Amino acid sequence: MTAPRILVVDDEADLRELLEITLVKMGLDVDCAESMAAARGHLARTDYALVLTDMRLPDGMGIELVREVAAAHRNTPIAVITAFGSAENAVAALKAGAFDYLSKPVGLDQLRLLVQSALRMHKSPAGPGQVAGDGAAASSCLIGESAVMQELRAQIVRLARSMAPVAITGESGSGKELAARDIHAHSARADKPFIAVNCGAIPEALMEAEFFGYRKGAFTGANEDRDGFFQAANGGTLMLDEVADLPLQMQVKLLRAIQERRVRKVGATVEEPVDVRIISATHQNLAECVEKGRFRQDLYYRLNVIELRLPPLRERLEDIGLLADVLLERMSAPGGKTVLSAQALDALRAYAFPGNVRELENILERALAFANDGEIAVGDLALKGAHMPPPGAAADAAPAPAPATATALEPVAERAGVPAPVPATDHALAVPQRPDDDLPGSLPDYLDNVEREIIRRALSKTHFNRTQAAELLGISFRQLRYRMQRLDIHEPDT
């Protein structure tokens, strides 16, 4: 079997020799070039598993070679060697298409990690040459067939080809962690760990120990050595969710860990190398956080090498039907299937979804408990502030929301021993009766009050035994607990 071949491009003979010796000891074949012209000649004749180039060459800049290789040799990852402290050059190279970078003086441990990662990428079936539309989207965690989602999945496949840090932006509930998992799954690191960390959920006093680990005896309670998030994600991907919530002191330590690719455990005296790809995510505007002094500018440029924006659900309303089908299939009981009525689907498409996909999931979970005969009606959705479609919008117009909801409550009310809010005439929505020109100001609030009263009576009848109350109401214990939390129903003080 032929050993992978590496091309080293550098005008310093001593460094070329050092790199060549190290790579040969790893069992690799090596070609060396002292200029861009020589490198182009090698590339024209040979297919390389990795190109390693200095940023400054006698006849040009290494970033030019990066662009050429990225355009003409898509199956060949290229990494750059930058001068110490030249963070701007490294970021520029990554944006131009570089797979990764090394800082001078070159650390041999870091070199070996970089080469191993590049070789995995070169051998991967998904490979660096994969392009959008060749089946990658089929395994995506992100659901949707709209144009924006197809473009998003294509961007993810391209981003998976490099080690460049990615900053994912998007509103809460838009699927930032799913996008990060997709980037990891399509990369050569897919068989390595993916670690997601919510930066806003870690107490500031514990952050350094949680991120970098600690040695036994480093502080009270440190009874044994423990790895941190960086060590746990070694070889894989570390996602920093809500990175804008990091305190400034931790931002400094994180910046060093990202730049040096080495971390020091709390209580240790030496640093250890780590091979981690960083993906950050936040719903805040990081540029504004930098302007306000709440986020370090140098860390911002380190993390924001490539930005991936997730569209809010209101920008891809055509995906709601597919999303709803997948979510309902996941939520439904085994052997049962619940679907949206035509009018319910129209109502969802007319809704703004400030909470995005997460809110859609909550709405459907609530509606599933109220649905009759395996179909969710408009009234079951209880969309607050939504503009409902006209009754004639669907071919089979659904009955008016209020009577339908009242009918849906009848069996639950009967089991709880509560008079059901049955409409006596056209002008009676529910108990108490109202004249037809005195409709409730808010139908969702009105229905919430009815539901709250039924649940309270069922709980009272069972002496606040929630398990028995759930059986009496014909719903699961989990559904009852969810409703009690949403409707703010608490056990009375004794």
Can you describe what's shown?
This protein has 20 helices and 16 strands. The protein is an alpha/beta fold and 494 residues long. Helix 17 (401-415) runs parallel beside helix 18 (443-461) and helix 18 (443-461) crosses helix 19. The model is unreliable at 125-138 and 387-432 (pLDDT under 50).
What characteristics describe this protein?
single chain, 494 residues, alpha/beta, Rossmann fold, Helicase, Ruva Protein, domain 3, five-stranded parallel sheet, 16 strands, 12% strand
Sheet of most strands:
5 strands, parallel
Outline, from the CA principal axes?
elongated
Low-confidence stretches: 125-138, 387-432
Radius of gyration: 29 Å
The figure for the number of domains is 4
Strand line-up in the sheet with most strands: 2-1-3-6-7
Span between N and C termini? 78 Å
- The CATH superfamily name of the largest domain is P-loop containing nucleotide triphosphate hydrolases
Figure out the total of helices.
Answer: 20
Give the tally of β-strands. 16
Helix content: 40-55%
**What structural class do helix, strand and pairing data support?**
alpha/beta
Percent of residues in beta strands?
A: 5-15%
What is the chains' assembly state?
single chain
Q: Output mean pLDDT.
A: 82
The CATH topology name of the largest domain reads Rossmann fold
CATH class of the largest domain: Alpha Beta
For the record, the CATH architecture of the largest domain stands as 3-Layer(aba) Sandwich
